[in-house]
Amino acid sequence: MWRIFSHLSHPSRIVISQTVLGALSVVGFYLSSPLQAYSALFAGGCVVVPTAYYAWITKTTLNASRLLFHGVLRMVLTAVFVAVAIVVVGIEPAGFFATLCVVQLGYLVK
Predict the structure, then answer these.
(1) Phi and psi of 101, rounded to 5°?
(2) What angle do CA 72, 77, 83 make, to 5 degrees?
(3) How many CB atoms sit inside 10 A of residue 105's CB?
(4) Is 43 helix (H, G, I), strand (E, B) or coil?
(5) Which of 12, 16, 64, 106 has its CA 20 to 30 A from that of 2?
(6) How far is CA 8 from CA 16, 59, 73, in A?
(7) CB 26 within 8 A of CB 37
(8) CA nearest neighbour of 13 among 62, 51, 70, 69
């Protein structure tokens, strides 16, 4: 299945796989509760947005220190987005944390 995306860079494939996993999780949780699906959507965004930013940075620079900085920034942004989603948005925990774990599996793409 991933041969379709073989021409893409590895970070781009990660973003695509995380987006697909997040969308599948949202659809799955929507079958049980729209509020769970809403929370799953936030969880997917908390991971996919910083990863997409990092994938874009990896295409624009080869400087190792800059890549390291943006890798740490990606992790910090993910943590901040999760904190904001929990405190401000008021998510449903089951849909949010299950999707957060499922979307992290996108990093296992070859």
Answers:
(1) -70, -40
(2) 130
(3) 11
(4) helix
(5) 64
(6) 10, 11, 23
(7) yes
(8) 51
pLDDT tens column, 82-106: 999 999 988 899 999 999 999 999 8
Neighbours of 23 (CB within 10 A): 15
Cα–Cα distance between 18 and 108 in angstroms, integer? 10
Provide the strand spans (E) within the chain: none
Structure tokens at 8: 């893409």
What does the buried/exposed string (b/e) look like for 8-20 if buried means 16 or more CB atoms within 10 Å of the residue's CB?
eeebbbbbbbbbe
